[in-house]
Amino acid sequence: MFEMLQGDRSRGMSREPVAYQVGQGQQGGGINALIDFALGFLKRQYLLIAVCLVLGAAVAITYLKITPPTYTGQAKLLLEGSKSHFGQRESILVDDAPLDAREVENQLQLLKSKSVLGAVVDRLKLAEDPDFNPATQPLARLIGLARRLVGLGVETPPAPEADDLVTALEGRMTTARVGFSNVIEINYNSTNPLRAAEVANAIAEAYMADKLSVKVNTSRTATTWLQGRLRDLGEQALAAESAVSAYRSNNNVVALDGKLLDEQQVTELSTRVVAARAQTLDALARLNTFEGVLHAKDFEAIARNPNLDAAVSDAMSNPIINSLRQQYLEYARRDEEFTTRFGNDHQAVVNLRARMREVRTSILDELRRLAEASRNDYQAVKQRQEGLEKQLAEAVSRSRTTKGAEGALRELDTKAKGYRSLYESLLQRYMGAVQQESFPLAEARLISPASPPQSKSKPKGILILALGLLGGLAFGAGIGFLREMMERVFRTTEQVERQLQMPCLSVVPRLDEVAPQLLPRELLQASTAIGQRAIARASGVHWGASEMPHSRFAESIRSIKLAVDLNLPGASSKVIGITSALPREGKSTIAAALAMLSAHTGARVIVVDCDLRNPSLSRTLTPDALAGMIEVIAGERTLEDVIWKDPKTGLSVLPSVSKRPLIHTSEILSAAPTRLLFEKLRASYDYVVVDLPPLVPIVDTRAGGHLVDGLILVVEWASTRTDVVQQALHAAPNLQAVLIGAVVNKTDMKALKRYTRYHGDEHYDRYGITS
Fold first, then answer.
1. Residues 6+ apart with CB under 8 A from 214
2. What gap in Å lies between CA 63 and CA 466, rounded to an integer?
3. pLDDT in tens, 315-329
4. What is d(CA 621, CA 535) in angstroms, rounded to the nearest whole number?
5. β-strand 173-177 against 183-190: which pairing, if any?
6. CB 129 within 8 A of CB 189
7. Half-sphere exposure of 203 (CA within 13 A, CB side)
């Protein structure tokens, strides 16, 4: 506060922006400010929130008491899109595709159809069910109770119609798909657990019965159509088959296994000719191989010839040649070994080479025999091939004579087979339809029948109570927030600075009556002896600053005095005006307390009651005064004749005596004699405290603003409306130059703790300041 007032003392700078900046700075703080606001909000509105919580809990409990319990019966249906093998073979309907999401949704809507629910209504006689009787509904009961209370009697509602019952039943049931499966849940709500399970199962059964009925009717219609179609197709198939038989007889066409006889012979002979040609080529290849080997000059190569090995060993598997070749290869290996070891002329090498020549001769002899055998085989196979080719040519020649009749025969045969195939297909479907009529397959089955629930599904006690508490909490918080938003009074220094654009000099606590100490008889006698008039020391709040110097009240008045001294540092005597926007805000008390505190410090102080129309301060301090300020201004009395003093503190009081109603008080305050009076007071006293009238009711303060050096505005805590004060200041622009600041009076310090953290007891206890 000291720094704020120091900064405000620059005469060349306006005081309003400084005050505004201070208020704005106190509003900042980001998240900390938000937390402080929330905690303060709870402190201020906790009682309202608690009441709303109790009301919310009471509403929730009342709802739980008057609302009948609801039980939910749950049944589960499995939609079978795929059929069994028996059903697939015999079904005449093409609905065996697997169920998709759209088809499942169609079934959910079918469960709520009028055909299904109407059957349930008729079967269970729901018209007699209490849940469907309008007279038993909670709203109807309340209306009936109200009618009985006012003496109108109970009005019997009409019986519900069938459509109304179906609508009511649909409103009490819910259907839903379980996940991505083909299982459907059917839930039904009722006040009776047995009835809830019974209706849920009845809905499932009615749905399955409806599906089965539709399928049977469709199958019966298809069976009737198939009977006539089969009769027509049978006649057409018989006529086509008779035409095929007659054509064969007329054209001498013989068929075996669906083919013409000549055509079968050509096919068989063609196959045999191809096989004979392959055998001839194979025999010729073997013969050429043997002849190529025999015409070779190098007998060593003959023995090692791989073609010879393939021709003889693989084709004919000759064991003699294979044995001779093995001997030859063994001799050749030993020849190389002995030649390397003993030389070419050694007898063992010569003997081995003689044996090798004998083996080669034997191989050639065997090859000549095999070549002759292959030549004979080739001749036999070639003759056989030529015979088969001749037979094939004859068969082809004969088949050409029947080509003209073959096309017409095939056309007739295809037509006959088509009629016969269609007839057999429809016959199979007809047999399946007949069997389905006697053994229909359901497309849904009840996999989990509903059983009577053991506990109610709603209302949920804990949930309703929690909602009631949350609703009460939200309602209380909303009402509290609305109250704070709509509240237009002063409660904190920040509000004063922000709304009035001026510093808040002090927060003065509310006090009860303070009884001042009685003066000693000697002091009173001495005062009377020198002609002084002693002010009345009756009980009053204004004595708090002098009689309780260590109290919060006294400290708040000291803050006002300090603000005056800092704002008017150059003046040897200071004229301080105290005013308010409205009456009864405590301006006179603040004026008297400030004057008494200043006098208690030893300063020369006089308090002047300028509230000429309502001199309440004079009535309190000088009730016996017969003359005062008016008489001095009028020249009827001297100043010394009307001044009253406090013998203990030396405080002087210039009262105002209201002998008759005054009208032009503003003219009196603005008159030149009044100015002269205050000039005289300024010369005689250090502090002149002026109790001015309120701003709103009369204009006296605006008229007497020139008399004071500084003006202090008093607002009552939690009572004075902000807009009233703002309008009052706006209507008195001439007072802006002398306004020092505002004082919040009659503050409930305990309640103030709910709005700010800066006025706690711990801040004052350390310095012995009492409340």
1. none
2. 13
3. 445 677 778 778 888
4. 5
5. antiparallel
6. no
7. 34
